[in-house]
Design brief:
heterodimer, A: about 325 residues, mainly alpha, MetI-like fold, 2 domains, two-stranded antiparallel sheet, 12 helices, flat, B: about 400 residues, 3-stranded antiparallel sheet, 3 strands, extended
């Protein structure tokens, strides 16, 4: 025991001395420098490979748990079933009626909230970007753009609080005054607030894209007698369209994966509806509710969360890959 | 010019003006949302940072402390303030003005400093939630919960200067509690700090090393292209997916403890690594290649070029990116819910493995509680969180402004 400890201590001391020697001894001796270089380069490569490991770990762990889920619930039921009520699966004695895992209501709920968010963020972000990049003066631009980007820095839990305690009651009251039946947790409230959150994402990217349209195109249009707005509508925007599409897709991917706003402001009941005044639930809300209660790791209820997570991962990955490709191709076109 | 051309021109000019107006309106509406959000939260939160307190001269009676009856200390003093009150229901009204958990404050004081026993000390103790709301008068429907006798008592106390609105210090020194009068953010603040320390200790070295390799050494081939695409996509993966990863890898596979800042930090670390890599690469890319060539020209090795020249010059950019990613990690909630940092935890965490919660999760937990005392507390916690984030952003902007170089 004493011997091992001694050997270990010596090894550590020697290694440390060697490391210090290698790090600080700068001699013209080529061999030393090259050894040190190789060693440090190896560390850098290991760090880089680690980032790949993260993706692999996400994919493998989520796929593994999802696979366990699909051995209990057929994948077709999950993808095409229209009834979602995982709670009943808790009763172990009722294995025959072990809950319903049809995710269609969750997908429509996610789609509905995302659509509302993009209806808010799309026009507001795009028009702001056009104004800032084409009309605004330099001073306006340097102050207004960062100020609007504050919206992207606010934590989502704050938006959730705002949606649940301020916006949802406002919409509920307004709806009731108009004689409409509005649920106290409506898709509209969650989508509206999520839209506010996404404005800066659409704004920043669209602004970059519009700025990279060559001035020569604009000058040519002015030369033909077009006004500024005609130039923007008929020349600049069509030229920038792929980039703007990319910005919108990234916005959609944000909205689909957003969690806290919908957890706090959208509901839990899986209604299959496209009425924005009703309460809907989303994929992310269900992941949180399934995993924050009591957990049994082999129950389909818990595993369902991983299947939902896998779906979410695939959808957002797909959107991101397309968006990044479009934006990259677009940049290359004008460089 | 013909008449029709003229009218067409007027129409075109109108469209032009309308178009500009649309852009302007879009910016105004976005700003209006931002201001509405800030004012709503400030309006609710500022009163949460204040607390109605009652000044009592507490005599730390040894007999009462030994039996653990700290309520008696408060009641004795209230009795001596209002000797004329004798019947039981009036006494109950009087006693209920002081918050029920006030006794815990006295208990903590005695435990911290036993020399207090036998002494008499003037102490501001929190008033009951209903008194607090009545005194702040920001919810009219709630003041009916106090009976007229209690309102009279409050007025008497006020005329003697014994009840006042003070800065809510317990909010910063106590952990979570079931009672809104004593619920504080100390636990969440420490939890956030511990989580961020782990997160940064993991993320910064890995991310900076990976960025240096990719930007300065990596050969251009299919594999490095793949890594690059991978990193860009990782940065856009929804944060909740990282929570699922943390749950299945750290908790289920490695069996790490639930709710621990250590696991939270590791999970957030994975999330911010791609963000820091992207920022670091951008900073390294901004250093002109003439500097690298000059260094190599006088005989520096590739590694010396990086450590002596490129990296120091890129440092401000790297630091700015890192601080902004800390800010992002600080505001993140969803992945931490997955690894169980959502429990009700009263004690302030002492180590990286203690169960704890973090600021945004604390906000989420309180926001589910509809008691008016907690609604205020939620907004107050949001204000604290936003102030920290603003501070981080100011530091980042300051570094960028101070060390920015145009090549």
């Amino acid at each position: 025991m004493g011997n091992t400890e001694l050997a270990l201590t010596i090894a550590v001391v020697v290694a440390t001395l060697l490391a210090i020697f290698l790090l600080y001894k700068t001699t013209p001796n080529f061999q030393t420098v090259s050894l040190k270089e190789k060693f440090i380069k190896l560390i850098l490569i290991i760090a880089t490979i680690f980032t790949v490991y993260t993706t692999l770990a996400i994919v493998l762990s989520v796929i593994y748990e999802s696979w366990l889920f699909f051995t209990k619930v057929p994948i077709t039921e999950f993808l095409f079933g229209t009834k979602w009520s995982p709670q009943t699966a808790m009763r172990a004695d009722q294995s025959a009626s072990s809950g319903a895992f049809g995710a269609i209501p969750l997908f429509t709920g996610t789609f509905l909230v995302t659509a509302i968010a993009m209806l808010v963020a799309g026009p507001l972000g795009l028009y702001s970007a056009i104004y800032i990049s084409e009309y605004a003066g330099k001073k306006f631009r340097t102050y207004v753009k960062p100020a609007l980007e504050i919206l992207a820095g606010i934590p989502t839990v704050v938006y959730g609080y705002f949606a649940a305690l301020t916006v949802a009651p406002l919409i509920h009251d307004a709806g009731t005054a108009l004689g409409l039946g509005v649920d106290s947790e409506s898709a509209l409230a969650a989508g509206l607030v999520m839209g506010i959150m996404i404005i800066p994402y659409v704004l920043s990217l669209s602004d970059d894209v519009i700025n990279s349209v060559p001035q020569a195109l604009r000058d040519a249009s002015y030369g033909l007698g077009a006004t500024k707005s005609e130039t923007i509508k008929n020349v600049v925007l069509p030229a920038a369209l792929p980039g703007i599409m990319g910005a919108m897709l990234l916005g959609i991917s944000r909205a689909v994966g957003e969690t806290m706003i919908v957890v706090m402001a959208a509901g839990l009941s899986a209604n299959l509806t496209i009425n924005p005044l009703e309460s809907v639930t989303t994929v992310t809300v269900q992941i949180v509710t399934l995993l924050t209660g009591d957990q049994e790791f082999d129950s389909p209820k818990t595993l369902a969360a991983f299947a939902l997570g896998l779906t979410l991962f695939i959808i957002t990955l797909f959107l991101n890959v397309i968006a990044l490709k479009i934006v990259k191709k677009y940049r290359e076109k004008y460089e | 010019m013909s008449k029709s051309t003229n009218s067409k021109l007027a129409k075109r000019n109108r469209t032009e003006k309308l178009f500009i107006l649309k852009g302007y309106m879009a910016i105004l509406i976005s700003f209006a949302f931002l201001l509405f959000l800030i004012f709503t939260i400030a309006g609710k939160g500022i009163s949460g940072l204040q607390q109605t307190q009652i000044k009592l001269e507490i005599e730390f009676n040894k007999a009462a402390i030994e039996t653990g009856n700290y309520n008696l200390l408060i009641r004795q003093q209230l009795d001596s303030l209002f000797p004329e009150i004798e019947d039981r229901s009036s006494k109950r009204n009087l006693y209920r003005l002081v918050a029920d958990p006030a006794k815990f404050i006295l208990m903590d004081m005695v435990q911290d400093d036993t020399s207090l026993i036998g002494e008499t000390k003037e102490i501001w103790l929190p008033a009951d939630e209903k008194v607090d709301i009545f005194f702040k008068q920001n919810a009219d429907d709630w003041d009916t919960k106090l009976n007229p006798e209690q309102k009279e008592l409050i007025k008497t106390l006020e005329s003697q200067g014994l009840i006042d609105l003070n800065f809510n210090f317990p909010f910063f020194t106590y952990g979570d509690s079931q009672e809104p009068e004593l619920a504080g953010i100390a636990g969440a603040l420490i939890g956030s700090m511990l989580t961020l320390i782990v997160c940064m200790a993991v993320a910064i070295p890995l991310a900076v090393c990976a960025a240096i390799y990719l930007e300065e050494f990596a050969p251009k081939n299919r594999f490095t292209d793949l890594i690059e695409v991978n990193i860009n996509n990782l940065a856009a993966v929804p944060s909740i997916v990282f929570g699922l990863l943390g749950l299945s890898v750290y908790l289920n596979f490695f069996g790490m403890p639930r709710s621990a800042p250590f696991v939270g930090g590791l999970t957030l670390g994975l999330m911010v690594i791609p963000v820091i890599i992207i920022a670091t690469r951008a900073a390294l890319k901004a250093v002109p290649s003439s500097i690298r060539q000059a260094a190599m020209g006088i005989g520096a090795s590739p590694l010396q070029v990086v450590t002596h020249h490129t990296l120091p010059l890129a440092m401000p950019g790297i630091m700015t990116g890192t601080i902004l990613s800390i800010a992002r990690a600080l505001g993140e909630t969803a992945p931490l819910l997955m690894i169980g940092m959502v429990a009700f935890i009263v004690d302030v965490p002492q180590s990286f493995s203690d169960p704890s919660t973090v600021m945004p999760v604390q906000i989420y937990l309180w926001s589910k509680n509809s008691q008016p005392g907690f609604v205020e507390k939620t907004a107050a916690a949001i204000i604290v969180l936003l102030l920290i984030l603003i501070l981080l952003n100011i530091i980042a902007v300051w570094i960028r402004k101070k060390y920015e170089r145009r090549w």
